[in-house]
Design a protein that fits this description.
Elements lengths: L1 H30 L2 H23 L10 H31 L1 H26 L6 E4 L8 H24 L7 H20 L1 H12 L2 E7 L6 E8 L5 E3 L7 E3 L2
Antiparallel strand pairs: 1-2, 2-3, 3-4, 3-5
Keywords: Membrane, Transmembrane, Transmembrane helix
Length: 249
């Protein structure tokens, strides 16, 4: 079940990436010439392969996932998707006011897109064979956090309804109007698809312990156990017998 959940979540992240990439590419093609749009599209969709190759070149010492990196990456990805989801309609409006500002915001969104790919690679943890972390099975969020999560996304829906209601007032041609309509659907879909990301961010916020598995740095044997925060707030390996086990491969 754990392996299935891992594969399903990674597939979900890939779908979110493709959705954002397609929306961003469609927006670029609408405002730029065909040559520039082709260059942007090539960069966007070749970014995962480039970043993945860079990860393959990392030394083995850097292939151990850290607890702080695991936690903050969950925060970062949720915030990044939220920022991009608001930047896309903002870029649409700015593009109607002036191409210079549109180019600046487009570059920023493109950089966020690259950071999104890096964050997804960290979620995959395929390059952390020596030490990989995961949430315990009993991890959960509180009822208050669940209510806040639902309310937050409802407010986002209302915000997008308001944003896309004022956009048509500045649109002067049919092509831009169609683009605005497609972007509205995409933003609402991204909002819905970002719910699991925000849920994981809340799990990370509540986490007091993290499961790990990998290779022991000294014995070089299979290592399975739990990490928890000490009194100083630092993540350390829990040495309690029921939580810490070493297996021979």
């Amino acid at each position: 079940m754990g392996r299935f959940s891992y594969c399903f979540y990674n597939g979900y992240l890939c779908f979110v990436f493709i959705l954002i990439a397609m929306t961003f590419t469609y927006q670029i093609c609408d405002f730029f010439s065909d040559e520039i749009a082709e260059i942007w599209t090539t960069v966007i969709f070749s970014a995962p392969a480039i970043i993945w190759s860079i990860y393959d070149c990392l030394p083995k010492e850097q292939q151990r996932q850290t607890a702080s990196g695991f936690i903050w990456n969950r925060y970062f990805l949720a915030g990044l998707v939220l920022a991009v989801n608001f930047a896309l309609p903002a870029n649409n409006v700015i593009g109607l006011l002036g191409k210079k500002y549109f180019i600046i915001l487009t570059i920023i969104i493109g950089l966020c897109h690259l950071l999104f790919v890096i964050s997804i690679c960290e979620h995959f943890a395929c390059h952390h064979q020596y030490f990989r972390l995961s949430f315990p099975k009993d991890s959960k969020i509180t009822n208050l956090q669940l209510f806040g999560l639902i309310l937050f996304h409802i407010l986002l829906v209302l915000a997008f309804l308001w944003i896309f209601r004022i956009c048509p007032e500045y649109i002067s041609n049919t092509q831009r109007y169609k683009h605005n309509t497609c972007l509205r659907v995409a933003c609402h879909l991204i909002n819905i698809m970002s719910i699991p990301l925000n849920y994981c961010a809340l799990l990370a916020w509540n986490s007091k312990k993290l499961n790990f598995k990998g290779i022991h740095p000294v014995t070089k044997r299979r290592w399975v156990g739990v990490m928890k925060k000490d009194k100083k707030g630092e993540w350390v390996v829990d040495v309690e017998p029921e939580d810490h086990r070493i297996f021979v491969v």
